[in-house]
């Protein structure tokens, strides 16, 4: 960031210079395409160049990737800006609301950001509004101290911006005027963000939902080796997409003893799974047990092998996984691996399996909602 010659930098120049030490700014940043695809790319709810880069960095790192600093440097000159630029940039306060919704209250620290001035802006605005309202209502004894508080906070803010700068009449005027306008602008944009992003859900990152295959995401065709007979259960695509939008990783854990019994080949299973991938969108990890009940393997559900292997491949702790299945063996495999289980019974699920299940949901949609709630509990721990 080239600094001006022979004078101290203006407020705008100092702000731009801050980018020189910022982590992950997109001015010179390269991501592997696969990592971007994995987290779903940039979040278009960030409408301006402000927090979109910190957001994607936090999501990519939550997915288990690392960001490393390279050796290349770029020159980033300060772009010309008008009188009101420092007021206009307050629009970023709305993006801060979305950051908090997505990444929780600790997002500033994790993004390498300082605490910001918003609380003081809010206090300044509240004092000013109180002073004006009390004055209008004739309550001078309230109006005067409120006005003094507003004036003091505003003066402190203006001084903090004027003192390090060039102190030319033009810069001083600009700092005084905008220091009055910034606190209400920041408050307004924060409010706007709260309204716009009221329904934005948390980003889950290093969490996963592992689905049983047959009679959970596709209708069971016993020992099916024919992709043409794959038929998803109702709402499966929507339920999986909902997880993808929230950053939850998706796996399938399935017993296919038809392989051990010689009824189907591994290649048949793969073809069927490819067809499921095609119909239900990309599944991050497939774990299949090809063994029979007497093979004493460690993977056949109700044993935990498929769940622990899928979790390891996704780089997610089993306790941050929910297993959704239609029978007791799915629930027991989840429990044995240290994951949560949610049962979606079908007509073939036995009543005692329903009674023993840790959680029961009427359909896949409800099961995914329950899974998100369980993962959110783990997230706040
Ligand atoms: Mg099943």
TrEMBL record:
It holds the Pfam family Hydrolase_like. InterPro entries: HAD-like_sf (IPR036412), HAD-SF_hydro_IIIA (IPR006549), HAD_sf (IPR023214), Heptose_bisP_phosphatase (IPR004446), Histidinol-phos (IPR006543), Nucleotide-diphossugar_trans (IPR029044). Keywords: Carbohydrate metabolism, Cytoplasm, Hydrolase, Metal-binding. It is found in: Cytoplasm. Signal peptide: none annotated. SUPFAM superfamilies: HAD-like (SSF56784), Nucleotide-diphospho-sugar transferases (SSF53448). It comes from the Bacteria. Transmembrane segments: none annotated. The keyword Amino-acid biosynthesis does not apply. Belongs to the GmhB family. PANTHER family: D-GLYCERO-BETA-D-MANNO-HEPTOSE-1,7-BISPHOSPHATE 7-PHOSPHATASE. This is D,D-heptose 1,7-bisphosphate phosphatase. It comes from Actinomadura miaoliensis.
